[in-house]
Amino acid sequence: MNLLPIVETKNKPFIIAGPCSAESEEQVFAIAKELHKYQQVNLFRCGVWKPRSSPNTFEGLGENALPWLQQIQRDYHFDVCIEIGTPQHLEVAMKYGIRYFWIGARTTVNPFLVQEIAQASKGCENIVVMIKNPVMADVNLWYGNFERFYNMGINKLAAIFRGFSSQYAYPYRNEPAWLHLFEFMRLYKQIPIIFDPSHIAGHSSLVEELVKKAIYLNVSGLMIEVHQQPQVALSDRQQQLDFGQFNNLINTLSSLQLNNDKTTQALLPYRLSIDEIDKELISLLSKRNRIVEEIAQYKKKEHIPILQMDRWQTILQNAHNNAVQQQVTPELVEQILHLIHEDSVKRQQQIIVRSE
Ligand code: PEP
Ligand code: MN
To answer: What is the pTM of this model?
Structure first.
């Protein structure tokens, strides 16, 4: 995939900011006017069609808000981006000169719908499409959306990471599940990542710490919800920053410039040690496997069940205590042991059942 940059800027990360939704002419202009003061803001975000959980909540002003956004593009230094969820949204928005779009997390779960929108985008010159991760942690499904647009000739594409729906999201609204983000970044290096701390956090007080975490991951952009009076916003009230909070965030960002050019020479000895430790871990696993195989031979001979629940319970409990004692995250150790135990059972099954 050969992509072009989505914004012309030297600022890293580039900044997309604006309200969750357009609520009135007065509101969108008040926010645009404030954000215009910041050269760092590269794009103005503003939802006009809102995918809400309940139809009895504010679902956006739709086409009525588009003339205001067109005006903002004329009067201020940034272009506007909006969410589209159908081919008609794209068609209508383009009539008002909108060129930047994002596909929301509730839409990117649906390949039929994304395909229809992608088809409608064919031949639309110069448009930019930003694709939010699907609500569930499925990196392949996320990437498939890029292929759909790329196949239609759209090469200004970016990914927006907004976390996943999860029962483990607390204290956030959506779980960042970094593992999946890293995997996406590793596999699809060419796709710029825009980090959306607002929809991950769900609360304005958690936005700044998430932004700092994202900066250290070297993301390409940030998408931040800002509202002139968040407490009366018609959608996502708790997570939108007020003007003061946004100003603080911009100040934090300017004091947090990462040095990307610095050589990694100084890290080399540490990295060698880490490589050594990883090698050791793998040879320990190999050693463990040999013992598992001997146990399997014995169980086979004596007709002893593979799964020994009491023993497994003890292993887990001991590992937990050990982890706490040695200040290793117990959840991490438990997860690793679950995987090791599953593999161990499979190895025994292989020896005992398959060879019968
Ligand atoms: C939004 O950006 O306002 C939005 C609805 O986000 P998401 O699709 O990530 O829930
Ligand atoms: Mn929102």
So the answer is: 0.90
